[in-house]
Amino acid sequence: MGVRGLMESIQAIKQRFGIIGNTPALNRAIEKAIQVAPTDISVLVTGESGVGKESIPKIIHQLSHRKHNKYIAVNCGAIPEGTIDSELFGHEKGSFTGATQTREGYFEVADGGTIFLDEVGELPLTTQVRLLRVLENGEFLKVGSSKVQKTNVRIVAATNVNMFEAIEKEKFREDLYYRLSTVDIHLPPLRDRQDDIHLLFRKFASDFALKYKMPTIKLTDAAIQTLLKHRWAGNIRQLRNIAEQLSVLEQNRTISAETLKSYLPATGSNLPAVIKTSKSESDFSSEREILYKVLFDMKSDLNDLKKLTLELMKNGNTKDVEKKNESLIQKIYGDDEDDAEYEEDTTTNSEVLSIPEHSANHTTPETLDKYHFAEEIEEEETLSLQDKELELIKKSLERHQGKRKLAAAELGISERTLYRKIKQYDL
Ligand SMILES: Nc1ncnc2c1ncn2[C@@H]1O[C@H](COP(=O)(O)OP(=O)(O)OP(=O)(O)O)[C@@H](O)[C@H]1O
Ligand SMILES: [Mg+2]
């Protein structure tokens, strides 16, 4: 294939697999994937968390003669050590407690196809021995069986950990490393892809505008500079999450450098508590959690306000109403002496609520916008928001071994609110 032909196919692959960017290092990685695809050579994809490693094995499989057979992606880091051998290689009936049926493993199911071993650095050493054997001669044993089976599987592995360090610490077998990394495809971190950063951001901004049916956000020149200078420890995944947060939360669709900075972890987010608890630097799922938390907090406040407004509309602003709704009012405006942040908010909040006739046409444009926004979310996301809230609370309680005080602090709610939620969800 000539240089032009190759460039054309790189562009076509990007289109087909939704890969954005034009950095030479990215093109080189895709080019390598195209070149090794027709062979059965093992490939190791390396690069920091969130750089887009997952699309490489898909490209390799789709461009190979194996494309009509199975492609199985296995996240080695997510499977418990006790079951991973059985997942990968299958087990014989009765081989351990609970093994009531003989089970086929991925290596049997994917015969003739491709297996993507994501986070391969997490594989236990005993599993590494089994894997080495499959790679060398296509042979494996089911757990609890002594019958040698054959399989023909192409392996693409990925890792975001330093494999040499893992080898040094004897957590990863050196022979397996060399066997897996016959060809190494490296994806560069986002900060080294300066020309792609704004391009990716615009793409995500337009995707989320469509998804949330809101106008597309746009960065000021200064904000673009901030975007380019940031370190992006979570790479494209982090950029995407920030584009999503901005798209959902910012009323002003032109984003200033200041606004952008408030979303970037280095300068401190407005909700630092949740970020701090993420289990590792690479775990950016917590940013999504923040987003959900903000949304369900808003929704819950809104429901409380609705209740109160209705009450006020029916009965007017009498002492009676105040008394009857004491707990609701306390919930909305804060009930904790030790909750200083809450008190600061009271003034701004009470401005909205001190207008009992508010359901008529005295609504300010701002509150109107917020209201409509929340309504829209309510229709589409109520269920998943509740799921998310439940999940957040569960996780937090787990992290703190059931200690409510710590969990409440982490979630940024009062202990009393947490208690109420625990009851609500029957936890
Ligand atoms: N070039 C790209 N264009 C568009 N989206 C991308 C690109 N690269 C990655 N993404 C998106 O970024 C996110 C992270 O990518 P991916 O899951 O492949 O990361 P990863 O390298 O496997 O990270 P980890 O090591 O943490 O698993 C995905 O949502 C992916 O769709
Ligand atoms: Mg991944």
TrEMBL record:
Residues 19-248 form the Sigma-54 factor interaction domain. Gene3D superfamilies: 1.10.8.60, Homeodomain-like, P-loop containing nucleotide triphosphate hydrolases. Pfam families: AAA_lid_14, HTH_8, Sigma54_activat. SMART domains: AAA. Residues 335-346 have a biased composition (Acidic residues). The keyword Transcription applies. Residues 335-365 are annotated as: Disordered. GO terms for molecular function: ATP binding; sequence-specific DNA binding. Keywords: ATP-binding, Nucleotide-binding, Transcription, Transcription regulation. GO terms for biological process: regulation of DNA-templated transcription. PANTHER family: SIGMA L-DEPENDENT TRANSCRIPTIONAL REGULATOR YQIR-RELATED, TRANSCRIPTIONAL REGULATORY PROTEIN. This is Regulatory Fis family protein.
